[in-house]
Amino acid sequence: METQTRRLTRKGQETRARIVAAAAQLMYERGLTEATLEDVRAAAGVSGSQVYHYFADKQALLLAVIEHQTQAVLEMQQPHFAALDTMAGLRQWRDAMVEYQLRLQCRGGCPIGSLGSEVAENNPEARLAVASGFLRWESAIRGGLQTMHARGELDTDPEDLALATLAALQGGLLLTQLQRRVKPLEVALDAMLDLIQTHTTTP
Amino acid sequence: METQTRRLTRKGQETRARIVAAAAQLMYERGLTEATLEDVRAAAGVSGSQVYHYFADKQALLLAVIEHQTQAVLEMQQPHFAALDTMAGLRQWRDAMVEYQLRLQCRGGCPIGSLGSEVAENNPEARLAVASGFLRWESAIRGGLQTMHARGELDTDPEDLALATLAALQGGLLLTQLQRRVKPLEVALDAMLDLIQTHTTTP
Fold first, then answer.
1. Which residues numbered 115-134 in A keep a CB inside 8 Å of some CB on B?
2. Which of A4, A158, B50, B192 could potentially form a cystine with A145 if both were Cys, beta carbons 3.0 to 4.6 Å apart?
3. Which regions of chain B carry the CATH code 1.10.357.10?
């Protein structure tokens, strides 16, 4: 996929990106199986042959969407990741995640998690792509906690804490999506911040 | 649905239950949209007219499956719920959840959570049914924590703690399903037990 992207002209790259963005949006709104290639084609405003020029089949498009959503999720949080080595930075990240769900009216859940849940038992390749996206997310959270640990400010395993924080975030997002209220996400993240606080020696 | 169930003969109830169990299994293994009524009919070993006798459409069957999976999940944990008012009981529940995923080789995720993720954006009635199932689950977890709180052994809000624990469990199950290893579930639940422990005055 990467090789193919590099070989495209600038215009080709833009068309491909437009198809992926349209597919991502449709899969996010309707779920994976409800979003057909024909829907994607119409939403992207391209011809069927253009879709097939860039993507051999729906599986190739799905893998591109997983990569697209992973990058989008990580880019959105990028300004916060560097600050996750203080309680204040962790709180700002928590507030940003909650704020974002409020803006979405608690719709959609996690774009990666939702795809993951749909593919986990019927598409091993896509499952691994989602798992790989989550590892990058976990790694970004872990960085700040490892810095705190290295400074002697955190007296527990930063790796386990990062994975548990990502799990709390995912579960909080799912329950927030189902209940259409932000409270589950708030208490899930607050529980993790409370736990991190009890293991830190700084305010 | 309830009224209809009560009106059935014993044999009718058994046939209906067989159809629901077959549908639940297929939706769990393949995902909701991949499990057609024809697949369900074949797996249950009944005729098409029998399926339509009990369920007007796939939506009616889906709602019955959500109820079936909610009951199954709650029944499986029932022996543990009464003991969630001590750290020892909470640890046994945690171990049981992890053990169960190991037996499943980390496949399938949460039967309710997976359905919830699939229906959340395209089926409001099913979304509310899943949300209602999660409220029953949350309530069962909350009971033990409220008892600890009433005994003066827990110095934090048991309602928030129960919701956060359910969120950690859901996120842990999703990541465990995607990674096919039990570690995410373990650290997610351990983080919550660690947090509960810091708020308790008993061992």
1. 116-118, 120-122, 127, 130-131, 134
2. A158
3. 66-198
